[in-house]
Design a protein that fits this description.
single chain; 2 helices
Length: 70
């Protein structure tokens, strides 16, 4: 989303999760399937690297004009 000042803004933080200090993985199954990392689908638990996977899929789609997996 673009704000009044013309800068991009991050929105929809409704799916954010704060993990406990002693927890290094989460097992939540939420998001858009086209952008989910494989470890999310197989319920092995995942870290922030799953977010990097999703970011990469979105960047690819923006550059190539198509989803990398469809």
């Amino acid at each position: 989303m673009v704000g009044k000042d013309g800068y991009l803004k991050l929105i929809d933080m409704g799916t954010c999760k704060k993990m406990a200090e002693n927890q290094n993985k989460t097992f939540s199954f939420i998001g858009t399937p086209e952008y989910m990392a494989p470890e999310v689908f197989i319920h092995k638990g995942y870290t922030y690297t799953a977010d990097l996977w999703s970011l990469g899929a979105i960047c690819y789609e923006l550059l190539a004009g198509k989803n990398p997996f469809i």
